[in-house]
Amino acid sequence: MRSRRLSQFFIDLLADKRRFASLTVILFLVYTVSFLVFDRLVANEQRYFLFAFGLVVSSLFFSWLLGGKATFVYVAFFNLLFTFIYSKPLFPAGTLYPMLFLSRSFIIISVSFALLMAFMIFFKSPADEARERMALETKEEREKARLLEFLVTERKITQDVVAQSNYAKDELLFLQGAWRSNIHNILNDLPEDRENEIYREIIEPFQEAILRHLKGLEKKLTFNPDHMKVKKLVEAVEEELSGELAAISRKYEVHFQVVKSDGILERRVFCDPYKVVEIIRNLVKNAQKAVELRQITLMREDFSAYRNFKPYLGIDLRAERGELLLVITDNGGGLKEEYLDKVFREPIPSSKRATYGLGTTFVKFFSDRMGFQVRGDNAVTEHGKGFRVTIRIPLAE
Fold this sequence. Notes:
alpha+beta, 12 helices
C-alpha cells in the first residue's frame, strides 16, 4: 500500500511540470546553501574534495529517485569520470595524498556510496514504478477503449442482423400466404394434395435455407459466453463443422477427433460454443492458405515433390491435465522463426502466411475474453513440417 502511494506521488510529480520544477529549484537551493555554509566553516582543500565527492553521491541518489535507473547509470558514469579527471592534477600538487583515502571521512563516504549503489541497482526506483504504472494504465485504457468500440460495433451489427432476420421471416410468411391464396388462380386444375406437394418441394426448402443462413449469421455476430458442460461444446463443434470438414476432406487428409470421455463431458467450461467454432474456422482457413502456398512453392521448385505432397489438417479436442486442449495442425511448412513470438499478439505481414493478420487477432481477442491460452509453434509430424496452434481451455472446478 505504501509502495502504491509512493508510486502515485511520483506519477503526480512527473505529470505536474510546476511541481517538478519547484522540487528542482529547492534541491538547487539546498546544494547552494550547503556549499556556502561549508565554504565559510572549512578552509581545507582536502575537505573540499570530500565535500565534492559527497555531493556526487547525493546527486546519484536523486538521479535514481527522480529519473529512474537508466538516468542513475548515466549520471553515475559522468559524475565519477569528472571526479577522477578533477582529481588527477591534485596529486602532483600535493593536495591529495594516499593517506587521505584512509581517513574516517573518506571511508564513511565510500561505504555510503557502495551501499547506496547496491541499493539503487537492486531496488526499483519510484520513478521507474511510476512510469511503468503510467504505461500500464495507458495500455489498459487503450484496451478498454478498443473493447468498448468492439462491443458497441458488435451490438449494433447484431441488432441489425436480428432486425433483418425478423424482416426476412415476415417476408417469407407473406410469400407463403400470397402463394397459397393465388395458387388456385394460377393452376385451377391442380388438386389440393398436389398443391401441398409442390409447396413442400419448392417453397419450404427455400424458406428453410434462408432461415438457416440468417440463424448462422446471428450466431457469428453475437458473443454470449457462459458456463456449460463440455458435452454441449463438443456437440456444437461437431454439428457446425462436420459438413465443412467433409468438403475439405475431398482434397485434404483430415483428422478430426473430439473428446468422448463421459467424465470430461460432464465437466464445465466457460465459453461461447459458436465463438469456439469461429475460432476453429479461422485457424482452419489459415491452415488451408498455408498448405496452398506450400503447394505453389513445391510446384515451382520440385514438381515431383508437389505430386507426392498430401495436404493434411488435424483438429483434435481432448482433455489433458485438468483442461481441454484444442490442437490444430497442418503441414504447410510452418511459420518464419522471427514471427513465432509475435503470432497471436499482433498482425504478421508475412507473404508465406498472408492470412495471419485479422484472423489471428480474432482468435486471440475472443480467446482472451473466454480465459483461453493460445500458443503457436512449428511442428514436424509424420505428414511433414507445419504449424500447430494449441488452445488451452480451463475446466471449471
